[in-house]
Each structure stands twice: as C-alpha cells, then as structure tokens.
Amino acid sequence: MTESSVKIIGQAYSSVILHWDLQIAESPLHQKYQSTSFEYTDSKYQPHEWRLELELESTQESFTDTSLTIRYLGEDEIALSNVQFQIFQQVLNGGHMSLLFSDMDEFDTGSGPLQLSKEGSSHSFYFEKERLREPFKLFITCILKPSTEGCNTVCASDTYHQLDSRLQDNYETLLLNGKFSDFTVSIANKELFLHKDILSSRSLYFFKMFDNEMKENNTNSVNIDDFTYDVMLEFFRYIYAAKVNDIKIHMVDLLVAADKYALEDLKSLCEHEMIKALSLDNALNFLSLANCHNARKLEAQCLKFIVLNAKDIVESPNYDLGELPKKLTNELFRLLAKKS
C-alpha cells in the first residue's frame, strides 16, 4: 500500500474541498494507494477524520477497473448530502493534463443524505490500459457536503440557504472591488484584482499554477488574450459567487473557458444551457465544439437532435460537415443508419 499526503484547499459552510496529488508507477495494476488521514470541522465544530483510497485492478482486456473511496475513520456514521470527485491525469516528463473522470455535475446523492460509515463511499470508473504505459500523476479533487437534514441550529434549512446567499453576495463584492487582492489578471487593457486562495480552491488549473514555481505565481499576474473581458468577468464571477449574468449570451465562450481552466461545474452548467438552445442552425457547430472540449452530455444530445432532425438540417443553409472529425462523422452516420 502506497501512502501520500492530501491537502484541504478550501472550506465553507456548505462544503470542504480536498486535493490529492498521486504519482503512479509504470504498469500499476493490482496496486492500492491511500492518502494520509485528514480532518475537518463541521458547522457544529465537531472534528471528523477521513482518508482517500485508490485501487487499480485489471479485469478487462482494454480497460482497468478503478475505484476511488472516501473513507470515514470515526466510530459513528455521518450524513453527507454529496460526495464528488474530479480526476486529472498528467503523463510525467512534460505530458499534458487531461480530464480522466468527473461527477461534478451530480449535485446530490439522489435519495436523501448518504450515511457514510467505515465502509466509505466508492466511485468506480474505467481506466484505458493505453494510459498506463508510462508513469503519470493523478490530481484528485474531492468535495464533501455535510447534510443539513435534521439540523435545528446554525444549519437549519432556511438559515442555511440565507447564509449561502449572503456569502455569494459577499464574494461577488470582493471580486468587483478587488480589495486585499494578491493576483492581477489583465484582459484587453482591463484588469481584475483577484485572490489566489479563492482561485486555487475552485480551479485545479490555478491550484497547480500557484503550487509551482510558474512565472505567473512569481509575478502575481497573468495576461489572458483568448477571451474577452466580459466573458472572463462572468467566469470569475462564477468562481467567486457560483453565478453567471447573461449566461445565454456567453455560454459558448464560457464552456471553452471552463474546459481550459478545469472548472467542471461551470462547464456542466454551460452544457445544460446549450442543450436547451439547440436548433437546426447550431446543432452541427455545437457538436463540433462539444467534441473538441470533452463536453460529453452536450455531444450526446447534439447527436440525438441531429439524427431526429437530419432531413431539415441537411436542407438548412448552414449545413456543413467539414468541421467534424472523421470519428464523429462516422458515429453520426452509424446512428442515422441504425434509425433507418
């Protein structure tokens, strides 16, 4: 069993955010990894101790069964309304970082609070064996949300939501006035004065930027030239206050920004809005964008929409398959053939 440390990178009334960096050796099948234990204090000022565990097990020809477990180390059961994981993989020696697994778009446990005991809560996913040929690192973010069910003190339902709303307003004010900032973002001759602690707790991209000796960390500034100021203001508004103004106007650019800066919950929100906005004129463009930025829910809905409306789309003035990758075009024709 290989053990490594875990960091608590953010904690608010509604959640605690953990980050676990894990270096995996070459051909790591049938191996188990666990984090050191960590502790956080709930809204009643009671400490709770936890541990993360990862197990890779070869059970299929092309894929490896993988389970990630959050294990509660206390004696009694504890109620959680939500457990979420996001995992990025980076091949060592300069490899790029790619999203491996995320359930950040699943906002609840489905059937009330999850009673978490020593057995823990496990999430299973598949790891392509092609990815295991070289040593790599995993960057694992875990969000725990305590349940408010049955509370009649500071986290009673009405008070809890009022507190969340007030926190949103306070954090949005902090974004807009820039007080006590320690990081400057320059966009099209305008500047936003931001806070490293907030950025790193919400985005793995910024966490890695500030956790390493990167130029931006040393200069406490970054220049962004691939998005407009209005788009990035809404992007950072979401980081600070979990809300977006005029999302229908900015949803496409915000999805691209969310993908670049590893903000999966914003990306999921943009996918949801784009699915609602699907039309004969934009379906092919949205499909190409979804494929390019790993927006799987949007991609699946685009394919369904195109198959159902194929005749009208082919006859529309904007019809053009030229931008679609060959693999996606083949999938589209396969679905059309299956329908007929």
From TrEMBL:
This is Uncharacterized protein.
